[in-house]
Design brief:
Two copies of one chain form a homodimer.
Chain A lengths: L3 H19 L4 E2 L4 E2 L2 E7 L11 H14 L3 E7 H11 L2 H12 L4 E7 L2 E4 L15 E11 L8 E10 L2 H17 L1 H7 L3 E2 L10 E2 L1 H20 L3 E2 L5 E3 H7 L1 H4 L8 E3 L2 E5 L4 H9 L10 E10 L15 E11 L4 H19 L5 E7 L13 H18 L3 E5 L8 E7 L5 E10 L2 H4 L4 E2 L5 E2 L2 E10 H12 L12 E5 L5 H13 L4 E4 L5 H10 L4 E5 L1 H6 L1 E6 L5 E5 H13 L12
Parallel strand pairs in A: 11-15, 17-18, 24-25, 24-26
Antiparallel strand pairs in A: 1-3, 2-3, 3-8, 4-5, 5-6, 7-8, 9-10, 12-14, 13-14, 15-16, 16-23, 17-19, 19-20, 20-23, 21-22, 26-27, 27-28
Chain lengths: 594, 594
């Protein structure tokens, strides 16, 4: 048995050989194994372009090569022999690679031959082409890729292939990927009309449509109310601030490339804020503070502005501006641990309410002592003590976490709560940071019990994270099938006949008064059509009413998740939904008689 | 009887004469009558500055001149005579005025003499100095004022005097003004810790402190929920947009001086939005629309960014950024009137809830056909029809309004709801605008019942206005004594003895669960001190609890407004406050047994 990477790498040679049979003029790039398969880069001629429509033909050639079989043979060549070989073959990229190897001091290079195809390659490979026959592979897609990854070089065409040791493994992967694509928040966001990315407004500046706005508002009110309950003081500070704020904080020195350009307004240099800590710390400093005032927990739903490369911009996950449920706790050194624990508990409470507690992982993000890019505050003592404190708290909390060197904030280490999006990419959804640096830089003080001035510690934390990004994760986690309390529309009332319209309208009014998000479909259409259309919107409860229901004061309810149908007294139905809202229920069930 | 302006203008001459006696070196500017009094401008020497501490001395000289009496005598002089007079007297500003009159073609100018003081003056004046003896006046303050109002000229010192026909009138005015100063939202805002203007963050970028933030959040949730109830679709769009959006809308052409500078982000020119209509119209255009979709009512709490002169910045009234309860209705031409009426009704409903319906006035803001400053869309036909439509609706509604030429938006006429702030300055608090221009510029369409494309009409409207500015008006209107539903803290629970602390804590928990904003003062302090401190915070209800209350399950409640004290069952007290919140009660009364 070969490692799967060896098989996939060997298959990439078979792919190159097959492409050369279909398009003999292509120039070859490189072809490594990757996760879930392999790729190979090609530069076709303008006359004979590489297109996905050629995949069947290329795959047929690959299978014919596999059928024929033969050895993978390694040979060693001098630099001159190797260069000569590829110059004769008209393969300039391969010749370039050999030049580079020579510059690094290599005297010889290795070649692998399989059938009539020979490639510059380090190996290893399978012994015989026949050994690849059990692999299950399929050509997946073509994407552009610059030669050697540099924009200055020509753009090659990269053929990606999926490849696994068995057909079952390949099928499972393809099915999972389809499911992920189906769950992609951009796809569901469009289907459910939750948000729209409108290029006319600007790249990375998505709009939340009415239903997406309802979800954001629900999350926002939920987290603000919960934070107030936990002793946070919510404030509103400006989206803008003097540049000096960020010079003081150190963002200007460490983080400028992510900040928007400074605007000259009269005599003032003003900048859109990338983060709100300088605002909250300035607010802290606006009055003398005593130990009796601490801990102070500032909370705010903050607009934050970050420059991102336009290629990085992704739906509600990477944007040019977003809204963070931000908070800064200012406390005495003795209070740091209990406040940190309080912040973790708030995050855990929120994850529980959102139903995502099982899907996350914890990461202790530490600084990189060998960093050369000026990413971190130069204060080894501070790093040693703050990282020790973070790790100590995490261990006492008994959290399972992994360490990530080089992922700290510039001013201190942090606990990141990580979530994988539908496409498998891990993103930070919530974060809690310990900061000994900014209290120093902002010269923050409090008068202690001893009557003397002391330096407080700051904790930067988000609770429900970036509202847009959390929405994206929720959309993907639930594939849009939100629990009732999060669903933008909770009930759709549908009239079976026109005679039941007055009754239907009465129910809608009653549900609205009870704080339930309800819409009505009172069109003169077949009920089957109404139900089909409403299902596409993933509404938790479809309530149909006809003569029978009107006479008995009941509703016929379809549960989105169980598909169960039941006729129950309207009063019970309404009461059950109110209960689902109040208890943040994660499972539907309001159509069950109470 | 002379007109009061004549008396005040005559008194300004007496003031100038008195100042010359006290500071013989001053150069004289001008001295007109103004509302509530008069002023006179002076340029003192550096050695002998004009200070408010000289007021008693100056007033004494004025009274001595009045006591002496004598005629106000008018004489006519040639330009040469007049210039000679003031050059001899060493009064360059007067000489400059005469030169200007000569340039305008005057052959002679008039002088008025009173006692030993002679001034260039058009009059009219009282006949005799004695006639001024019944006037009640007082020197008020000194302020800097550029000669002829131009920054290029020297800065003179202006003495303002208050002056009325009777002592009663003067006293009333002074008392009213003191009351207004006491109500100034900046003063109360600081006393109640509602907001802070922190120069370190930026000028015109005030922070809402926890209690001010609670007021804003209360207003925001109130208006959003009410708009949703009225069929608005709330959305969230970005604070930023492409410059092209504002080129299309016409803001770039008509409104650029109020906009922030454009930022170059990669290839994109991005600007902070001064208004949100382009965003909502782009959203409208993002899907095909039919007459069945109309009216569409977009609502949003929008961050807006306006450049203001730093001298204009005022507390929560003029800021560099603010939050507007903004909305844009897109409708068919046939729906304009009913949608306009709906917008007026919403504003009236909100004013009723806020308790300010009696304090506002309506203004029909029309364009100025003679405007030379490119302030308005050049489309006389549009203006004629849209202004006729506005006036027609207002008349049919039976609103009392005044017309204001030159106050329209650049794209259309508007109804402004005007409110005077504590200092008597009128500001627009809510506005509703009819717009035929932007639907054209954004090429907005809908498919009509006839299957053809039509152009919709837009209505721009605010409901509760700019949240910060509305807060400022409410603070001044109520002098911080908000109705319960708006009060940042509704109840302060105070323990009389330490034994009553557990009972007090129980009440706090119960009130919190009922959604009531409550704080507790459980310090070991005399109850008298606690009550005095809490009163300063203008909290509607002070609830004191001791042994007696704990045993009987009651509270002793002090009503902020009536000063009444009563002991009632706690359950009743809580129920009454919940009712005040639910009914948006404007008057306190929760301490009355129900």
């Amino acid at each position: 048995m070969y490692p799967v990477e060896t098989c996939n790498h060997s298959l990439s040679h078979i792919l190159a050989a097959a492409v050369l049979r279909v398009l003999p003029d292509v120039k070859l790039g490189i072809g490594p194994a990757i996760e879930n398969g392999f790729y190979y880069d090609f530069l076709p001629t303008k006359e004979n372009p590489l297109k996905e429509s050629l995949f069947p033909k290329i795959e047929k050639e690959m299978r014919s090569i596999l059928k024929k079989g033969g050895a993978f043979t390694r040979t060693e060549k001098t630099i001159a022999e190797a260069t000569g070989f590829f110059e004769t073959a008209g393969q300039p990229f391969k010749a370039e690679l050999i030049r580079e190897l020579a510059e690094k001091g290599n005297q010889t290079v290795s070649f692998y031959a399989s059938g009539d195809f020979t490639d510059l390659c380090q190996g290893p490979h399978v012994d015989k082409i026949e050994d690849l026959r059990t692999m299950a592979f399929t050509l997946d897609r073509i994407a552009g890729a610059y030669w050697q990854g540099s924009e200055k070089n020509p753009m090659l065409q990269r053929i990606y292939a999926l490849s696994f040791p068995s057909k079952e493994a390949l099928d499972t992967y393809v099915a999972n990927r389809e499911e992920a694509a189906r769950r992609d928040h951009r796809v569901i966001g469009a289907e459910m009309k939750l948000f729209a990315s409108l290029d006319a407004i600007g790249r990375g500046l998505p709009c939340l449509l009415p239903r997406g706005a309802t979800l954001r508002r629900t999350l926002e009110r939920f987290v603000v109310d919960e934070e107030l309950r936990r002793g946070y003081q919510h404030v509103y500070t400006a989206d803008l601030g003097r540049k000096e704020l960020y010079v003081t904080s150190g963002h200007w020195g460490h983080y400028q490339e992510s900040m928007y350009p400074v605007m000259q307004l009269g005599d003032d240099e003003i900048v859109l804020r990338p983060m709100s800590c300088p605002h909250h710390f300035t607010l802290y400093n606006s009055e003398p503070r005593s130990y009796r005032d601490l801990p102070m927990r500032f909370g705010e739903i903050v607009s934050q502005f970050r420059r991102e490369q336009s290629g990085e911009l992704t739906g509600l996950i990477r944007m040019m501006m977003f809204h963070l449920a931000d908070g800064h706790i200012v406390c005495t050194p003795e209070q740091v641990e209990s406040e940190f624990v309080g912040a973790v508990e708030l995050v855990q409470y929120i994850m529980g309410r959102l139903g995502i507690a099982e899907t996350i992982s914890y990461r202790a993000s530490l600084h990189d002592p060998d960093d050369k890019a000026n990413k971190y505050e130069d204060n080894p003592e501070m790093w040693a003590s703050s990282e020790a404190q973070l790790i100590g708290v995490l261990d006492r909390l008994g959290l399972q976490y992994k360490k990530a060197v080089g992922e700290a904030a510039f001013y201190g280490p942090k606990l990141d709560v990580q979530q994988k999006n539908a496409m498998g990419k891990e993103e930070t959804i919530f974060t809690i940071q310990i900061d000994f640096v900014l209290p120093e830089r902002f010269d923050m003080k409090y008068v202690g019990e001893d009557g003397k001035e002391h330096r407080p510690v700051a904790i930067h934390r988000s609770s429900i994270g970036c509202l847009e990004r959390t929405m994206a994760f929720l959309i993907e986690h639930y594939a849009g099938m939100f629990p009732t309390w999060l669903a933008p529309v909770q009930v759709m009332v549908m009239s079976i006949t026109d005679e039941s319209i007055p009754y239907a309208k009465g129910l809608v009014d009653s549900l609205k008064k009870a704080g339930i998000r309800v819409e009505a479909d009172l069109r003169n259409e077949k009920i089957g059509k109404k139900v089909r259309e409403a299902r596409l919107q993933r509404i938790p409860y479809l309530a149909t009413v006809g003569k029978k229901e009107a006479e008995s004061g009941s509703v016929s309810v379809r549960n989105r998740d169980t598909q169960a149908e039941a006729t129950i007294p309207f009063e019970t139905f309404q009461k059950n939904i109110v209960a689902e809202n109040e208890t943040y229920a994660l499972k539907l069930g309001a159509e069950q008689a109470g």
